[in-house]
Amino acid sequence: MARVADRPVGTKRDLLTPQRITAGVLTLVALLFVLQNRDDVTLQFLGLQITATLWFASLALIVTGVLIGVLWTSRRK
């Protein structure tokens, strides 16, 4: 049996999914946060003292959270 396409692939409707719009808005918010928080901060963790910009520390926490989420929800095959 031949498969009939309802609409052409790669249309504007395919590009603007709710997930992509949400990701774009969150990316914009994160970028604005980074640009407004460029001051140096001192972080303490397990006896270590680290000086970094606030945006870098925030980015490190966001990446860590994303990695935890990916690892937590990944399925074993």
Element layout with pairings:
Elements: H1 12-15, H2 18-36, E1 40-45, E2 48-53, H3 54-73
Antiparallel strand pairs: 1-2
Question: What structural keywords apply?
Answer:
77 residues; alpha+beta; two-stranded antiparallel sheet; 56% helix
Describe this structure as you would to a colleague.
With 77 residues, the chain is α+β, with helices and mostly antiparallel strands. It has one domain (12-73). The chain has 3 helices and 2 strands. A two-stranded antiparallel ribbon has the order 1-2. β1 and β2 (48-53) form a beta hairpin. The longest helix is centred in the C-terminal third of the chain and has 20 residues, at 54-73. It starts with 11 loop residues before the first helix and ends with a helix. The mean pLDDT is 81.
